[in-house]
Hints:
The complex is a heterodimer of chains A (about 80) and B (about 700).
Chain A: H1 2-10, E1 13-16, H2 17-24, H3 28-40, E2 44-46, E3 71-74, H4 76-83
Antiparallel strand pairs in A: 2-3
Chain B: E1 30-38, H1 44-52, E2 56-60, E3 67-75, E4 78-84, H2 96-107, E5 112-118, H3 122-132, E6 139-144, H4 146-151, E7 155-156, H5 158-165, E8 169-171, H6 180-191, H7 206-219, H8 229-237, H9 241-251, H10 254-266, H11 270-289, E9 290-291, H12 295-308, H13 313-355, H14 361-380, H15 382-397, H16 400-414, H17 422-427, H18 432-438, H19 445-454, H20 461-475, H21 479-504, E10 512-515, H22 525-544, H23 546-559, H24 569-576, H25 578-582, H26 588-596, H27 603-611, H28 621-628, H29 631-643, H30 648-658, H31 661-688
Amino acid sequence: xxxxxxxxxxxxxxxxxxxxxxxxxxxxxxxxxxxxxxxxxxxxxxxxxxxxxxxxxxxxxxxxxxxxxxxxxxxxxxxxxxxx
Amino acid sequence: xxxxxxxxxxxxxxxxxxxxxxxxxxxxxxxxxxxxxxxxxxxxxxxxxxxxxxxxxxxxxxxxxxxxxxxxxxxxxxxxxxxxxxxxxxxxxxxxxxxxxxxxxxxxxxxxxxxxxxxxxxxxxxxxxxxxxxxxxxxxxxxxxxxxxxxxxxxxxxxxxxxxxxxxxxxxxxxxxxxxxxxxxxxxxxxxxxxxxxxxxxxxxxxxxxxxxxxxxxxxxxxxxxxxxxxxxxxxxxxxxxxxxxxxxxxxxxxxxxxxxxxxxxxxxxxxxxxxxxxxxxxxxxxxxxxxxxxxxxxxxxxxxxxxxxxxxxxxxxxxxxxxxxxxxxxxxxxxxxxxxxxxxxxxxxxxxxxxxxxxxxxxxxxxxxxxxxxxxxxxxxxxxxxxxxxxxxxxxxxxxxxxxxxxxxxxxxxxxxxxxxxxxxxxxxxxxxxxxxxxxxxxxxxxxxxxxxxxxxxxxxxxxxxxxxxxxxxxxxxxxxxxxxxxxxxxxxxxxxxxxxxxxxxxxxxxxxxxxxxxxxxxxxxxxxxxxxxxxxxxxxxxxxxxxxxxxxxxxxxxxxxxxxxxxxxxxxxxxxxxxxxxxxxxxxxxxxxxxxxxxxxxxxxxxxxxxxxxxxxxxxxxxxxxxxxxxxxxxxxxxxxxxxxxxxxxxxxxxxxxxxxxxxxxxxxxxxxxxxxxxxxxxxxxx
Lengths: 84, 689
């Protein structure tokens, strides 16, 4: 299932939890657990890691842009696994 | 199995137990060892405290600093020694807690293991159960927090889950002391052999099953008791650090380890396969036993998302939403700004001119023309900003901004910009500084540097604020369309440059993003209020510091050496640039305003306020600008402002992140060239119409 998830991500582009959960026939909550697991294993990285950098000069912080939702991105390791 | 309300009285004065493997005596007065396992915060400690009360013994696990809690409970002639295992998410050697929990289950071999799970989030909890099942065939699942699950609209069918798992499942609510007695009764019956456990175990992919068998054959006979050989083989395949070290260093002869190692190296992907097997198992259990949340809320979100995330309709909706943001801002905010500008600023200017009539001319000029005309003018667009930020905060709070990001990525994808560069670039809509910092998610140094070059092309909030202020002055009713067009033009330039970079530098590398689209919900006035307050106070702080200082500097340069702006140092410097400005229909004052925006984008307004003499009573900046610029020149100015060199803070962070002056200067040079070329092009085309 994790391999299938990585393969889906290997196609590139942006995917929503709902799309991926439907493709894997699992609830979104289980998909989220799997994403966290993949992140722990180094295949994914949370974009929210970059939060905390706030521009003093402007009027917005980094994290609000995604509307409070989580955003994940494939790491090099994840991209290699997806391409395998 | 219904959750009847029963109350367990904690035993008083029970002696702390001294536990070890094989202490159970299952005859006459029965003594058993029961281990409580579960994730953190599932109510495991509540169950433990409820049962053991004052009869607890608290210490540390041998050789560890992790707390160990044990206690005794007596039920129906059975003395139950309870061991509260550390809260863990799995039984892989990821943390000391996980090692302690699994070592205890394997080495102490408790008579029964109780897995406490949270009924409201079984998806998160069953993975641990999947890991416990191969280690303890006498397992009871305590389905805790059924009341919380029901309140959240999640319904779990215990009998179905029991049949699917193959082990007893007891619904309960520990915090209400419901179902705990049934849990103990079930544990007692399992320990006595009255209830048999026939667990359905997770499986792994068929090809990896073969690999597992090969490893199993190689380690057989070398696995120290009481470790199960099949579990050791599985953990080796899974890449478990502790088990690998144990088998390599202490158990397997070197030649046999070499064989195992060779197999493991050839099947690195098996790590995922083992975990996948467990997730598939969890998925099956969930599908069988969980009836999912309130259909209404999900349906509403899904129904809305069919439109908001649609590749075409979603983009049109986003355009419409942005248009509405600008229209509302212009329709309500601009009249308020004009009122502040002409009435408040004008009155204040008249008052200060009169009050300072006896003071030296330079002081009156500094206060009225410099501070009030510059920083004061910037402050007048506070109503516009408050509205702008309030509407954006509302869109974010209801959950729409995540959809906007989602649909924007698809749009960028169509334009060929679909690398990892997208997400940091999208962050640039808030502010270019985190966009540049956000490029850290890009692993390739070359791609990262190029994305940094692109980041300032994203119209940040400060640039948008300047556009929101100036567009209605120049274009009145057409201002929302012009503002949208300017954003679209920036994105077009960004898309073209980004696509070229993607094609030639990243060579078509595609990157994936996964976005959570939260449920739509009612906006919270408090959240919106806080956001508007933070943004507005930040803006005022900036107006009172950076913009104020710059206003004074611009005023001084525009006044020296003889008080006449036309012969000032600033005019001399500005006129040197006029040949370029003439190509865009802009005089030196507009060019100086552009240059001053390097310090902070809003400075362009402050500088225009000073150079167009809005300090005089009754004269608004708007009317002064309208008479000074043709529509073609005004549009060219806005285009240049949108594409111009970013603010000093962004340039500084580009230097910090790129660690290269060459890249920093290249970024500044590229944007300067690009913005001027676009400005000239727009002016020449529009003028010809």
